[in-house]
């Protein structure tokens, strides 16, 4: 190749490079700030076209890249960055488009590339950079056509809601008003928030299986799986909500006996009740169950659970479960065999009126990556303080649905009235009616004056009985049809729920776990006595502020009804009413009649002597006079 040809090629390449640079990286002199102020950042944006949103950020501390993506695939929105979890993206996607469309250029800040770090508009996808990263937002349409591509940098000081922004592949930095909340990478903002679809008013029963375990799966030297489990059982409680009484009742209560290694029933003590507040909080927490992340299950496990079974047999499935705190084991409640799941922190079963049951099993801790990167969950649990709620800690949740037909009340058919054995002829019916009329008239003549004989109600005819039977049959069939419809609707709801739950392990905040994971101490409470109440063993309703029970106040009559002991005079003879302190002679003491409703005061020796002296004969006295006469020499 001649030198002329080489020079020509180099010139053409250089010219192309300059042309590309001019069109993709406008320089400062090409901008007339006054002309572009108020222009749209993106012209002619098709608002109904976006099919995909990608948001990328990078941590300057760790350099970790965080990518979030939501896309419409085959007409359904999903989150590819979360293994295709279904997205509720209609409103959020509209907000993201609004965050790009009609954004006006308020000013041109810089047209060079040297200050991108200063303005925080470095592309997080730039592997050569190590600081100044912004938030990269890209909207694409059909056939992955790029509709908008921008990097949002630092907020502008003193300009609320305004940020440094540049278009991807361009160096110019603009001043634009942007709402960063519209480009959320929070997983919870893009999904259906009502995970269970549960109405707390429809919860009819809760079963709590309170236990802990340490599932572990290892591979032995023969390459076989060995499952190990350290199980700590505590209590099983079935609680039913009584709508008529508007309160919870204990249907069955069992506690584990470590000596016999069996569950034994127990009952509430007289001073114990079901904690209504705790169970109310449980229902509300289930209604607002928050998930912060999801992880995909193995295909085999997903398929089995979508069918409503707990049958698990593959190595991949067993290992997947064990890593998250679940263990497949033989079902002890199924004599025919089968497999069930045990979890590290027990389980609850929530039953609704429509027969749909939610089975929630609580697994191991999962550390929030944003809270403490690089730490193991066990170490982070201590650091975050799990007992105080464990901010930054999450827990795996395994959810499935099943149908309980017994939760739907079965209709009780109304009995049909019996038909007469033989149909009466018209003549027989007329004669019988005449006889009954004669009997009624005779009965009326015999009735006393002013009394009217009540006629017996006429017997229904066969036609009337048959009509009543048809009415009852229709009502019974209608009730049965309604029951059958409820059963079918419940079964369909279970299938739909398992289609949603079957593919996923869910992750919930640890503080939410504490609201729905209840033990015996949270379910059963012992009310404290009201303020000011006294212990029954050490209190007395007659306790005086001035002394012991029944003690008199000096200078005042005893008004306590003789409760002060043997030293106090009887209530019928208070000291304040006696004219003198001298005791009158027995013969002069007037005889007093005790009130009818009052226990007579005990007799003294002087009283007995006076009564004996007044008696006409010894027989009229209560005792012989000699018995009451003191020996000689004694007064």
Account of the protein in words:
- Helix content is 25%, strand content 24%.
- The protein has 14 helices and 24 strands.
- The strands form five sheets. Strands 4-3-2-1-6-7-8-9-5 form a nine-stranded antiparallel sheet, covered by helices on one side.
- The termini are far apart.
- 21% of the residues are buried.
- The N terminus and C terminus are likely disordered.
Can I get a quick summary?
With 635 residues, the chain is an alpha+beta fold. 25% of the residues lie in helices and 24% in strands. Strand 18 and strand 19 form a beta hairpin.
Radius of gyration, whole Å? 45 Å
Percentage of residues in helical conformation: 25-40%
Task: Compute the separation of the termini in Å.
Answer: 163 Å
Q: How many β-strand runs? A: 24
Number of helices in the DSSP assignment: 14
The main pleated sheet reads as: 9 strands, antiparallel
Low-confidence runs: 3-29, 370-389, 536-601, 608-635
What features would you highlight for this structure?
disordered C terminus, 24 strands, nine-stranded antiparallel sheet, alpha+beta, 25% helix, 635 residues
How do the helices and strands line up, and which of them pair or pack?
Layout: H1 3-24, H2 33-36, E1 52-58, E2 65-73, E3 76-79, E4 85-86, H3 90-98, E5 105-110, H4 116-119, E6 135-140, E7 146-155, E8 162-167, E9 173-177, E10 203-212, E11 216-219, E12 225-228, E13 232-242, E14 247-257, E15 262-265, E16 273-274, H5 276-287, E17 293-296, H6 299-306, H7 315-322, E18 326-330, E19 339-343, E20 347-352, E21 356-367, H8 377-384, E22 393-403, H9 426-446, H10 462-501, E23 504-509, H11 510-516, H12 520-523, E24 524-525, H13 605-614, H14 625-628
Antiparallel strand pairs: 1-2, 1-6, 2-3, 3-4, 5-9, 6-7, 7-8, 8-9, 10-13, 10-20, 11-12, 13-14, 14-15, 16-24, 17-23, 18-19, 20-21, 21-22, 22-23
């Amino acid at each position: 190749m001649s030198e002329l040809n080489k020079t020509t090629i180099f010139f053409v390449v250089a010219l192309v490079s300059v042309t590309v640079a001019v069109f993709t990286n406008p320089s400062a002199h090409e901008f007339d700030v006054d002309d572009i102020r108020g222009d749209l950042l993106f012209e002619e944006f098709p608002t109904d076209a976006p099919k995909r949103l990608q948001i990328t950020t990078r941590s300057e501390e760790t350099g970790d890249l965080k990518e979030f993506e939501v896309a419409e695939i085959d007409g359904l929105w999903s989150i590819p960055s979360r293994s295709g979890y279904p997205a509720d993206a209609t409103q959020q996607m509209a907000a993201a488009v609004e965050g790009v469309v009609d954004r006006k250029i308020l000013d041109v800040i810089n047209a060079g590339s040297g200050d991108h770090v200063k303005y925080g508009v470095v592309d997080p996808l730039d592997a050569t950079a190590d600081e100044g990263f912004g938030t990269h937002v890209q909207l694409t349409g059909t056939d992955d056509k790029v509709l908008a591509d921008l990097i949002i940098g630092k907020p502008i000081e003193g300009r609320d809601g305004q940020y440094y922004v540049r278009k991807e592949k361009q160096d110019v930095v603009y001043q634009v008003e942007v709402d960063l909340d519209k480009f959320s990478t929070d997983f919870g903002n893009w999904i259906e928030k009502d995970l269970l679809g549960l109405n707390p008013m429809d919860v009819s029963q809760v079963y709590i299986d309170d236990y802990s375990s340490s599932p572990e799966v290892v591979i032995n030297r023969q390459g076989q799986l060995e499952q190990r489990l350290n199980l700590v059982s505590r209590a099983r409680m079935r609680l039913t909500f009584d709508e008529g009484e508007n309160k919870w009742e204990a249907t069955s209560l069992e506690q584990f006996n470590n000596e016999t290694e069996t569950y034994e029933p127990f009952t509430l003590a007289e001073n114990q009740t079901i904690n209504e507040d705790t169970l109310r909080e449980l229902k509300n927490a289930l209604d607002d169950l928050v998930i912060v992340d999801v992880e995909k299950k193995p295909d085999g496990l997903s398929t089995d659970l979508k069918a409503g079974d707990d049958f698990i047999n593959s190595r991949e499935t067993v290992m997947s479960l064990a890593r998250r705190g679940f263990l497949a084991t033989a079902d002890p409640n199924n004599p025919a065999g089968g497999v069930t799941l045990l979890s590290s922190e027990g389980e609850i079963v929530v039953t609704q009126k429509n027969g749909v049951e939610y089975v929630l099993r609580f697994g191991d801790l999962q550390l929030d990556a944003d809270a403490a990167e690089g730490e193991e969950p066990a170490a982070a649990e201590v650091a975050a303080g799990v007992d105080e709620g464990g901010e930054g800690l999450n827990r795996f949740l395994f959810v499935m649905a099943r149908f309980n037909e017994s939760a739907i009340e079965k209709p009780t058919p109304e009995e049909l009235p019996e038909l007469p054995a033989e149909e009466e002829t018209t003549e027989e019916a007329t004669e019988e009616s005449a006889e009954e009329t004669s009997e009624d008239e005779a009965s009326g003549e015999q009735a006393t004056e002013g009394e009217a004989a009540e006629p017996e109600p006429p017997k229904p005819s066969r036609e009337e009985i048959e009509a009543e039977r048809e009415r009852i049959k229709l009502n019974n069939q209608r009730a049965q049809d309604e029951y059958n419809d409820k059963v079918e609707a419940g079964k369909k709801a279970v299938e739909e729920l398992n289609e949603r739950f079957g593919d996923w392990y869910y992750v919930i905040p640890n503080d939410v776990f504490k609201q729905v994971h209840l033990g015996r101490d949270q379910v059963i409470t012992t009310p404290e006595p009201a303020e000011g109440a006294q212990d029954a063993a050490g209190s007395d309703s007659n306790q005086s502020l001035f002394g012991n029970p029944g003690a008199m106040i000096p200078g005042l009559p005893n008004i306590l009804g003789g409760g002060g002991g043997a030293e106090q005079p009887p209530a019928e003879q208070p000291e304040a009413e006696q004219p003198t302190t001298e005791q009158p002679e027995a013969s002069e003491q007037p005889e007093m009649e005790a009130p009818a409703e009052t226990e007579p005061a005990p007799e003294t020796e002087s009283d007995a002597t006076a009564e004996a002296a007044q008696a006409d004969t010894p027989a009229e006295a209560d005792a012989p006079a000699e018995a009451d006469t003191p020996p000689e020499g004694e007064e």
